[in-house]
Amino acid sequence: MAAVAAGLLAAIAGCKEKAPDHIRIAMVVKNLGNGFFDAAHTGALDAAKELKNVEIIYTGPTTPSAEGQIEIVNSLISQKVDAIIISANDPNALVPIAKKAMVRGIKVVSFDSGLAKDGRMMQLNPSNADLIGLKQIQMASDAIGGQGEIAILSASAQATNQNIWIGVMKKVLEQPEFNKMKLVTVAYGDDQSDKSYREAIGLLRSYPNLKAIISPTTVGINAASKAVVDEHLVGKVFVTGLGLPSEMAGHVKSGAVREFAIWNPIDLGYAATYAAYDFVKKQPGAQAGGSISAGRMGSIAIDANGEAAMAPPFTYNKGNVDQFSKIF
What we know:
This protein is α/β, with parallel strands linked by helices.
């Protein structure tokens, strides 16, 4: 009996020794039910398996709002998680609660749509903003023969990444090779399917000479493609931007979309998890000007502003969309 008791006490002592090595990383996404972030979650789980002692808490508001994310982060602070990976619905509104988390010792890493510098330790961009902006204008130009009216259907007016990419796109349109293309307006669907669809319908009806809609958001590009089909404008108006192969395969086949681009969200969630892990473990490179070790993604450099870029966007079309649609 004494031996059993001693064994039990040893087991309990052993658990107590291992507990500090158990790292809880919360992934806070813009909203639940979004295929892009579901794929990022898959990547986070892949990283957790490799790191062995990591638990992923996947969460986000039901609709994309800063208020919803603030409430969730506040709850995570109470749960004393080790790190928070967040794609922000608003770069500035979330800074106070993110600062509160960091004061409590929680490592905050933003990915995809970044937090303002004061609200995070690192921002992992999926790609380089200049390359993303240029890519989308190039795809639209190729689809419409380099001339005509185009419109942009974005997420929310406060979305950090969307606004940066739109700014780049406007500059690209000033280049001589694209000066026959005219941006008529930027609409906002708030990353909600119904609103994005209504906004796309509005664009098609308000601008009868419209040749292309660029949507740098997975929700928007899907909604805009459906709008083009429903308005019987396939072949007259082309949709391009950033989308998920699983959601866009049908639109490529319908002809509403000639090509679109996206980085791999699985890799993004994977790399963000490794980054958070490095910060929790206080690795020497986990700082501005350093680099993180991101498993199969290799070493990712962090610039002086605490920002890093994962990879350039990849083009999907009728030749490869079916293959990738089975993955994400």
